[in-house]
Amino acid sequence: MRATVVGFALMALPLVFFGLFFAYPVAAIVGRGLKTDAGWQFGRIGEVLARPDIADVLWFTTWQALASTGLTLLIALPGAYVFARFDFPGKGLLRAVVTVPFVLPTVVVGTAFLALVGRNGLLDQLWGIRLDTTVWAILLAHVFFNYAVVVRTVGGLWAQLDPRQEEAARVLGAGRFAAWRRVTLPALAPAVAAAALMVFLFTFSSFGVVQILGGPSYSTLEVEVYRQTAQLLDLPTAAVLTMVQFAAMGLVLAVHARTVRRRETALRLVDPRRTAHRPHGPMERALLGGVLLTVAVLIVLPLGVLVERSLDAPGGYGLGFYRALEEVGSGTFLVPPLESIGNSLEYALAATAIALVVGGLAAGALTRRAGRFVRGFDALLMLPLGVSAVTVGFGFLITLDEPPLDLRTSWILVPLAQALVGVPFVVRTMLPVLRAVDARLREAAAVLGASPWRAWREVDLPLVWRALLIAAGFAFAVSLGEFGATVFIARPDRPTLPVAVTRLLGRAGEMNYGQAMALSTILMLVCAVSLLVLERLRPDKTSGEF
Amino acid sequence: MTLLRLEGVSVRFGGRAAVDAVDLEVAEHETVCVLGPSGSGKSTLLRVVAGLQPVSGGRVLLDGADQAGVPVHRRGVGLMFQDHQLFPHRDVGGNVAFGLRMRGAAGRGAYGSRVAELLELVGLPGAQGRAVASLSGGEQQRVALARALAPSPRLLMLDEPLGQLDRGLRERLVVELRGLFARLGTTVLAVTHDQGEAFALADRVVVMRDGRIAQAGTPLEVWQRPASEFVARFLGFENVVPAVVSGGVADTAWGKVPVPDGAPEGAQRVLIRPAGVTVGADGLRCEVLSRTFRGTHVALLLGPEAGPVLEAECGLAGAPAVGDRVAVSFAPAEVVVLPPQ
């Protein structure tokens, strides 16, 4: 009974937080779009969906997400195998490198591919090839972004599968491929499905990448919501599209939750360090070479080109673009772009603090007794990943502007929005660790005279502080890169890094382009450094859902 | 002077009673061992006394004070967990000092000498700085004991204290523990499924079955006079058969078996300890089914011409071989008349 009371007390703050800063703004937007003085206008849903331009957006959103997912699996599964089963020098570093894109802000990903395949990009200069008006740029950027999701989710499990299972099948007469297909593949399938759903989720709601690389011809739901809201001021259409996206994401998340639960079936897992071996034979060496080449071309090259472009100033290589960031420039900004770094760091730190408190309390509540209500709470926490960030941002503008919650002029508005996407990461990172703390350690502390609070401080905290730091790092990286909501609510005189990058890209001129590259490089370095710190902290370097 | 008293304590999980109306007393400086198969409710009993498990009924009194409503950390008892539950993020010294820190108001440095003293006591002098993960099973057990003893609990409880250790270590540690508790005057309530451990450690043994107390007494009493067939079989005796007792003789499937003087008459069950099955020239004729060397004696499994399989013991010299035909007689001193079921 007392445990239940504590559980509800822990849930109270997260519930209020989500009610005020998520449900209320989103509901307000939908209401404003679909409700007139004459009541709810549900007929508008049908009208909007019947429009051919909207049908095009829906179709493109879906097929590009499917294509991106398929392509990512195709390219990343060999990588997952190599990381799981092969030992080679520099493996740890390479694992960190392939993870960098995942914590990069989407705006940086878009910019990097623009520098590679866009106008005056590397391929354009070398061979006159431009892909930025084609769908290939978007698909490749999505693969770049999600490579790590597949490698970590599938590879993590693959490394822990006992190879002797396959050997047993071989001894029983199965060929090499048959053994893989009948023993390893079924064990891996749930992990592959989970990774695929995750990639689908990210690419279906893709905003920054498509905004930068899609040009006028390609638009996902999220981009269209932004266009309808910010440019065409067509709130009814935006509201309908938000609901469509929400429904689609809800479906995907529900399927995901099911596969994850099925994934927890009893597999005989072993220490990943025991399953890896040096590649031998021409086949395995070719596979390793192919994966290394893929990583080089797909991941290292775009990042390298980004850095190169940022240094390629008019007067020859140098820090010209970086220096220009200190000046106010030609009316794009009220303040020097360099100030956006400070803004971003401040906002991200505040957002991290909020996400840790809210997510930490929520994870604490979820660790206690499971029940229908608690499972619903768990799902609620994941919702921000599925709702258009643009809608959330615009919702903030129209709801949090009157007393008692007049936050329009408050700086806290941006961190609040960013924390919304940080919370799911905090919960997902903390939950397994909190659940793994043996309750009897707490009992041992109690018998030795520790009060419940003291036991938590002496036993739980020391065991989970590492996970807490990792969660903080994730929340920090997502907050730093958050774009969809921030672009609405960041004040013109206090832009964040991603907002400043898109503003620079939106203007013509070599100087603006170069400065965008320079800012993106800075953003990439901040994210990469925080990731490398995280990698060192991660106690088990292969597992983790993200 | 009674330190711990349980009055009609019951614990229910759903509809099942894990502990069923148990009355138990532990006197000061006494070592009591609760013995029972897994699932008999003995660990639950310890958790009840520690306050980790709420009771469905009955009272727990420590020093005469009802413990209802007293939280775990204020009960002043010690509990050594079955798998030790050492804190993985603290070194040996940090683990041993934990209880002192929780209770004492003294400064950081003041615990050092007490920790050193305790580690000395459990035979791990100077181990303060070692990581818990680097300890062997036996060493972990010693550290867990030192940790539980450190705050000088008025009652020390041990849950399968030697359960996970190998046999040689176990036998040595039982002797050490008994000496240690005698020296410190500690009051101990231990639970174990191992009768050898219980008999070696305890002043008094309490045998539990399905949440109830099946028998309580000194080790010698329980060993010599099991109170029921359950206790007899739990102690490892298999020669139990129904019998009709009259005039100092029990009529069993194995024929006439002499019983001790004063045994109850009528329909009973009879236990014949293997030591009481004597291989000789005449008596019940049996075939030797198996022969197991036990170090000090040979254990025989005999197939008698009438009745169920019979366990017997004989000396190393002259032990029959498998397939031999022998005759056995029964020694009344090793026969126990049990109440009928």
TrEMBL record, chain B:
Keywords in alphabetical order, please: ATP-binding, Nucleotide-binding, Transport
List each copy of the ABC transporter domain by range.
4-235
One short Pfam name that applies is ABC_tran
GO MF term (any one): ATP binding
Q: Which domain of life is it from?
A: Bacteria
Q: What PROSITE patterns is this protein classified in? A: ABC_TRANSPORTER_1, ABC_TRANSPORTER_2
InterPro entries tied to this protein: AAA+_ATPase, ABC_SmlMolc_Importer, ABC_transporter-like_ATP-bd, ABC_transporter-like_CS, Mo/tungstate-bd_C_term_dom, P-loop_NTPase, Transp-assoc_OB_typ2
PANTHER family in the record: SPERMIDINE/PUTRESCINE IMPORT ATP-BINDING PROTEIN POTA (PTHR42781), SPERMIDINE_PUTRESCINE IMPORT ATP-BINDING PROTEIN POTA (PTHR42781:SF4)
Name of this protein:
Fe(3+) ions import ATP-binding protein FbpC
Q: Which gene encodes it?
A: fbpC
